[in-house]
Design brief:
By secondary structure, the chain is mainly alpha-helical. It is elongated, with a radius of gyration of 30 Å.
Length: 135
């Protein structure tokens, strides 16, 4: 097993443990909403400490239910993951393209020979002949 495969396996096991351990250990038992978000927990703590607190801002859109709020959050996370995946994919493609171009232009520049349309021999020059050979 390669070093990268070991690291990936270890990271996958850590993510699985983070997802499963709170459920397996019963963390959050006895709470009304055991896995409520930090916003809801902060709001509950603030109203407990200072009941007459007035929020500075109100939300622009209040979803009608918690399920819709969760679905919108999941959609936001999916769109963010898609944007990141696209960015890293483009970046990797550019790097591979640059490496391919560098490898193609460095192969015996000026020493390639090819036959022309009329059957005669013509000397290729640099990366133009290499580019023509790749098409």
């Amino acid at each position: 097993m390669t070093r990268n495969a070991k690291i990936n396996t270890l990271l996958l096991l850590m993510v699985a443990a983070l997802a499963v351990l709170p459920l397996a250990l019963g963390l959050g038992d006895g709470k009304e909403e055991p896995f409520a978000g930090a916003d809801a927990q902060a709001e509950a703590a603030i109203t407990e400490l200072k009941p007459d607190y007035e929020p500075w801002f109100s939300p622009l859109y209040e979803p009608p239910s918690g399920e819709i709020e969760s679905a919108l959050f999941a959609l936001q996370a999916a769109l963010g993951a898609g944007v990141l995946a696209y960015y890293f994919g483009v970046r990797k493609g550019r790097r591979q393209g640059a490496a391919l171009a560098a490898a193609g232009s460095g192969d015996g520049a000026g020493t390639e020979a090819g036959t022309g349309d009329g059957g005669g021999t013509g000397a290729g020059t640099g990366s133009a002949a290499a580019a023509g050979a790749e098409r």
